[in-house]
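This protein record is not my work; I was only asked to verify it. Where you disagree with what is written, explain briefly why. This is what I was given:
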Amino acid sequence: MTSFQIKAVIIGVLSVGVTIGTFWLWRKAMPGVIAGEFSNYVTFITPLCGLIVSAVLFTLIEYFFDPKISYSLALALAVVPYFFVPANVWALGAATISFGLLASAVYRVKTEYNFASGFSASRVSRASFPIFFTFTALVISIYYLADFHEEKAVSSLFPRSVFNIVLKAIPSSLQKEFGIPEIGSNQTVDDFLTILVKQEIQKAGLPESRISQKDIEEAVALQRKEISKQYHLQLHGNENMRDVLYNTMVDRMKDLLGPYQKYLPIASAVAFFLAFRVLGLPLYYLSFFLFALLIRLLIWLKLVKKELKQVEVERLTL
């Protein structure tokens, strides 16, 4: 086996292994993305870094490898990530588009290799990275769609984490103005209603000492019964108040959406794809920096050498 073949095998195995491993990490992280749970930063930073490394390794393959090998690896990278989701028309269509994207990236980089007067990391990056990150956005959007069922559609529009942030952001002065007590994270329905009943007693000018605990409990039970009837709930009093508010809000949103709810997964996947494409911009610059640095390192280690070659360039003339 020649020196070139050894290098080719190493880069090829690394590229396929890192890319598939990165997409596997994205598949594992997707439920957290949909739920809006970003507290564990490692879960998201690791696959993001994996995308950068994958883009650089694939660009090395495009530039240095024979076109047949490059297109074969592009086919493997385009198809294998979709094995992590159930086979359906969306995955099949996305896999076809993915191969088209990666094949076009290979063609653009090979054109740069064959006709450019010299090597330019900037030109090679522009030919490869934008297309590669479009491909990654497509794959991850299919992962998003695979977990984004109708049952999760509405709750994903307004995640629980966002709901908790909104509750914390409500100023205490605004709560006092509307007579709404602060809702603690561990507060039950009966705890919340007890505070409301005591506030009503104070507003009525009655001394709290004259009201027995039994009267307060009966008033709380009556309030709970009225709320259950009005919002079609089954409350026993020991439910978490934040859970009840959030679930009730989600149910009302479902009622408003009605039959259009079934279109939410597709619409959300498209929105996710566009949002991830925006994220591809900083990833592009980070990948370019790593690619340029890696090329310099390979030249310094003499794993890549510079050669002067004559090339024929096609021109149109009159």
User: Anything to note?
Assistant: The mean pLDDT is 80. The chain has twelve helices and no strands.
